[in-house]
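The records we work with from here on pair a chain with its fold. These numbers are not coordinates but entries in a learned vocabulary of local backbone shapes. To see the layout at work, look at the sequence and tokens printed below.

. . .
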Amino acid sequence: MSPTPLSLEYLLRPSNSDVAEKPAIFLFHGYGSNEEDLFSFAPELPAELMVFSVKAPYDLEPFGHAWYAINFDAEQGKWSDDEQAKESREKIVKFIDEAIAAYNLDETNITLLGFSQGTILSYAVALSYPEKIKNVIALSGYINERILKEGYAEKDLSHLNFYISHGQVDQVIPLEWAQRAPNFLKQLGIKPTYQEFPIGHGVSQQNFYAFKKWLEAHI
């Protein structure tokens, strides 16, 4: 199946389901990577899912892509471009709506899977637009409250399902940043699943099979 042109570039693995409206999962890669990275998960993901692996909109030199800029400044240290992150949040929401229409997806059964920067955006999309999302798999990331849509806490978030995991020796995003997420979500009425693995900034085989089992129970 050749992907239908949508507002962001993506790779697609079709669903094997014969239901009219297909459940779907959208994969969002980390800073400096591309849509081929997480697409390596696709053959192992539940066969009934339509799998979209999406390329971030901003090009990096000499290669790779980002959902928003991360700048390195002598005075401020490392800082994220939150305005650009909010723009990407809206681009992702638009892309999901386009994909639902183009591929006749089940709009009540949409899962987001992010890694690192892709996780930060997945949190932002799900908490800002909970009516559009069912599940979130948040790998090696954290919640950036500054890029959540104003008024998000007043929305009904209780139906959202979160699987969160992080490497205990992650050298890119500190473990304690990820550890804040479960309590943050519980205060919003959400009951997340949280796991740590003895790895760095990546996804081990054990981690993969753990979130796959969780996903199979939640789609």
